[in-house]
Structures are given as C-alpha cells and as structure tokens.
Amino acid sequence: MNADVRHEPVVSDPYAGFVQPPQVRLKVEQVSYAYSATDRTAPKFTLGPVSFEGHQRELVAILGPNASGKSTLLKLLAGLIKPLSGRIEVDGEEVSSMELRTRAQRIALVAQESEMLFPLRVWEYVLQGRYPYGRRLRFESAEDCLMAGNALAQVGAEALRDRWMDQLSGGEKQRVILARAMAQQPSLLLLDEPTQHLDIGGKVELLRRLRKLADENRYTVIVVTHELNLAAEFSDRIALLHKGKCLRIGSPDEVYQPEILEEVFEAPLEVEMRSTGRPRVLLRGARE
Amino acid sequence: MRPLTPKRILGVCAALAAVLFIECVVSLRLGAYPISIVDIVKTLFHGAIGHWDEVPDEYKSVIFGIRLPRIALGILVGSTLATAGAGFQALLRNPLADPYVLGVSSGAALGAIVSLIVAPHTVGAIQLAAFIGAAATVGVVYLLGRRGGQLDTATLLLAGIVAASFLSAVIMFLMTTLSGRDLRGMAFWLMGDLQTPPPIQNVPAWFAFLFTIFVFAAGAIYTTASDLNLILTGEQEARHLGVNVSRVKLVVYVAASVLTGLAVSVSGAIGYVGLLVPHAMRFLFGNDYRLLIPTSIIGGAIAIVLADTLARTIAAPTELPVGAMTALAGAPVFIYLMRRRVR
C-alpha cells in the first residue's frame, strides 16, 4: 500500500449535492470454487475466478448452459458454500463470516421447489420469512404479520392467504414463495430458475414483478435462468458463464454477441437488435 | 392471519390436562377394590397437601401404592413416546416415523434379554441393560447415518432399519435359550407392559429421576420447535432462512433417542403411541411444532392411561399387556386418520 496516501488531503465527495451514484449492494471479488468427489481427488469442476458488482435497484441475470456453474455461483452468493478464494460482500460485510440469521436478514434465496411434508396455509408459509427476526420460540409479532401481509400484497397474492400451499397453481405458488423471500426484507434477492414451471404468461409476469420489486424495494435481484430473451428484456446486466468461467459481464447488448452465444450454447443462434436497444435471440434454421 | 400465541398454547394444554385429570380419576376408581370418586378426590387432595393421617390405610395402599404409580408410569411413558415420535417425524421428514424406527427399541430389547440370561433375578438389571442396549444402538446408528460429517436423513433411516432388523434376529436367536417363565416375561416386555415394578424401594424418588430426564430431553426438543417447522418445509430452505440445521438435527436425534430409551427401559416397546399421537394432534391442532410438542406430551399420556385402564379392566382379573391394547386400538385409528385426511 502506498504510504503517502495517508498524507493526502481529504477530497470532498464529488457527488455532493447531486444525485448519489447507485449504491453497491453486492461485491464479488475474484471468487472461485472447486468441487471434488473426495478431499484427496482432483477437483471435478472448478468455478471462477468471478468478479462483479450488484447495485441496488438492479436486476442481474446469470446465464449459461447446463453445468456452467450458475447454481454454484448462486450458492456462493447465498453463503451456502464458502468460496475457495476471493470475497463476497453484501452491504459491506463478508457473506461467509456472517452469522446465520444475519445472513438471512440480508440475503433471500428463492430455490427450486421443494416438497412439503405437511401442508401449510399461505400465511403460515409467508410468516416463516420472519424467522431470522424472531427470538427464542419466535412467536410472531404484530410487525411480523404486517410485513408478511405487505409482502403478500406486493405480489398480488392477498386473496390466497388462507389457502393451503399444496392447492395452489404453479404461478400462485411462485408468487407466495417470492412473498416469503420478501418478508425477510433482504438487500439481495436471489432466484434459482424461478421461471422453470411457469407458462410464458407466468414467466413474463414474474420478471415484470421482479423488475418492479427491484425498483420499489431497492433490492439487488439476481436471477439464474435459461430464458435468453426474457433476460435480455428485463435485466440491467447479464453474466454469461461457460464451463465454470465467467465469459462476459455487461448490458444485454454487450453480452449477446452471436458468435459467443453460439459457442456457449452450441446451437445456431442469431441476435437481432430491437428498436428498444435490447437484443433478441433467434434460432437460425436448426434443421440445416 | 392468526399467528400462534403462548396464550393459545396454554389454553389448549389446559383443556387437554383437564381431560387427562378426569381420565386419571376414573382410572383410579376402576379395579378390584371399590373406592368412590369422592373418596379418590379427597385422598388425592389430602395426599397432595401431606395430611396422611386423614387417609384410611387401605386407600393409601390401593391408591398410592398400586394404582397411582401405574398411572404415573403410563403418563411418563405416553408423554415420552409421543414427544419422541413427533421429534423423529420431523428429523426424518417422514410421517411414518415412530420412536422405534431407528432400532432403539430393538437395542433395548436385546439389552433386556441379555440381562435375563446373565443376571435373571437382579433388581433393576433389566432396566439398566435395556437403557445400555438402547444407547449403544443410538450410537452405532448415528455413526452409520452420517454423510460428509452430518446426519443425512435417508442414510440415517436406512441405517436404523437395518440395525433394527439385525437386532431382532439376534433377539429371536437368544429367546430360544430362555426358560418358560422368562420367555413369558420377555414376550410381555416386547409387547410393552406397565406392570414392571420400580427397581428401587423409594418410588417417588424413582419417578422424580425419570421425570427429570424427561423434562430435560423434551425441553431440548421444544427449544428447536420453530426450527423444526422450517425443516419440515425443506432442509435447504430452512438453511436459507438462518436455521442451523445440523445442530437442530443432532439435538433432536439425541433427545428423542434418550426419550425412547427411557420409555422402553421402563415399559418395553409399547407400539403405535409414538406414531399416532402426534398425527392425532396434528389433525386436531395443526402442524406447528410449538403447539404440537406440548399437545403430544399430554395427548400421549391420555392415550396410554386410557389403553392401560382398558387393558386391566376389560378382561379382569386377567391383565392384558398395554402394548397389545395400543396396537389393537391404534391400527384402526391410524387407518381412520389416514382416510379422513382429505388433503
């Protein structure tokens, strides 16, 4: 480190009096990870090093073919696994050293569906999102109920509150699961292939909603998805992974280069630039 | 939205406790020596405040010497089994789990049978040997049920089932060596029975000892109640929400095993209570473990006291083993609950 730095005069904030720059919520610095079958064998799969930042109100999509490391990256961001090297910070605090409940107050993960053993009512399920804020036996406070109610209202699922979770349609269920994540009041909202079981209408509605939530609640939303066109339409930035490497990070039009996409997804793809400035991916005569 | 409150838990438990109390009074009334309900309540009252000189001697020996200890043992065993059952159902994420699924009862039975062969007439040997057998099984199944340093639900279940069937085979083999009288005792023990006399002279001290273990183990499970609610929704999801899943599983495994070991060492393997009572309570009061555990504790006591009262009265003066009674009543009740659960 340069010793002279300390003697430099303090520079006043160049943005003072102006609109503040977008606040960095998530900082990923040179993060890598390796899977191996046992401790002694060579790693079967390595990820990284990956570096990027997520700002508040930003929607970042993580794209890539199967086994490219998307889910591993998401697990690292969620703090479920520790990086082999590098740092992940959320709101300035390192994720891997966070206390479990603090972590759950900062980061919410909407995972791929899991099966429930005994059914719950929707409101009971959403109240589970308040767990990180409770004490001891965690009897829910009036504030917890308010937060859960707000979350349900924001995803337009208020009418479902007394229904049983196992009687909801795919789209309804996805909204309720999202509401539980919102009840955690996180800074960082992570979603693992949330559009998987939805029809096209449901997919568009979900992404529109995520876009709106990022703006209204100042979340940083990170979505792992296979939907190239929906990602291009709704995300601010895209991270493209391939074989454990992060090939590109940038705005959709920077990342969607036909030659890169074709190589990564091993399919004949064309990219068309639309008048909105957002690219669209088309399948070029696959039968040829 | 009506979240669970401590007030609701207390209210429900008070109602169930009242049912248990009435049931106990009725059970005290029934038997070869007739005592009126009024006399029973009076005797209990005087006994409770220590006015022994106002209690007739015959009442004292019938109520405090014979019937009450048996009811107390029933309450202890029922509460213990139901709590352990509720714990195992969450730990194994399996509605069919009961306290014996991991082989604890088989280990206890093996201990008991070994003590019958090695030291047939030693007071307390059977309970001690059963507890040691149960503890050894719990330890071995724990070691076999781990994966990557953590308890893995599916592996644990398989390890338990294998251990149980292996131990049963050993028991069958050893039973061929028992004499006629011991064989009959063992059969009662395998079926579950509340007639075994306490191994020490000081009966209240014996119960105080057993209830202390129960309170600590059940208390340990109760501290994880809200964690178990989340684990039932999915282990991964519970982890995301900040639950220390491996710690909770270890606590529940150890505490539920201690409870099962405690129950089987004093009463043998009484079936169905640990499986059915938690389900009946779910059916009545919902799936929230913060309410399910206390209601299972009282519900288990109600179930066993009822079963034992029937077991010693319907074929009087012959007494049936209480385990045969719970199995007879349990199987149809189980089918009824299963069919009525529309969802």
SSE order and pairing:
The complex is a heterodimer of chains A (288) and B (343).
Chain A: E1 24-35, E2 45-55, E3 58-63, H1 70-78, E4 85-90, E5 93-94, H2 100-106, E6 107-110, H3 122-127, H4 142-154, H5 170-183, E7 188-192, H6 200-217, E8 220-224, H7 228-234, E9 237-242, E10 245-250, H8 252-255, H9 258-265, E11 269-273, E12 279-283
Helix pairs in contact in A: 4-5
Chain B: H1 6-29, H2 37-49, H3 57-91, H4 104-118, H5 125-144, E1 146-147, E2 150-151, H6 153-175, H7 180-191, H8 203-223, H9 225-233, H10 235-240, H11 245-267, H12 273-285, H13 289-313, H14 322-340
Helix pairs in contact in B: 1-13, 3-8, 3-11, 3-12, 3-13, 4-5, 4-6, 4-7, 4-11, 5-6, 5-11, 8-11, 12-13, 12-14, 13-14
CATH level 1 class label of the largest domain in chain A: Alpha Beta
Mean pLDDT of chain A: 82
CATH topology of chain B: ABC transporter involved in vitamin B12 uptake, BtuC
Largest sheet of chain B: 2 strands, antiparallel
What would the principal axes of the Cα set say about the shape of chain A? globular
C-alpha termini separation of chain A: 58 Å
Largest sheet of chain A: 6 strands, mixed
Structural class of chain A: alpha/beta
Give the neighbour order of strands across the main sheet of chain B.
1-2
- Uncertain segments of chain B are none
Unreliable spans of chain A are: 1-16
- Quaternary structure classification: heterodimer
Number of strands of chain A: 12
Beta-strand share of residues of chain A: 25-35%
What is the CA-based Rg of chain B, rounded?
Answer: 20 Å
Q: With helices defined by DSSP (H or I, 4 residues minimum), what is the helix count of chain B?
A: 14
- What is the H level of CATH, i.e. the homologous superfamily of chain B? ABC transporter involved in vitamin B12 uptake, BtuC
CATH class of chain B: Mainly Alpha
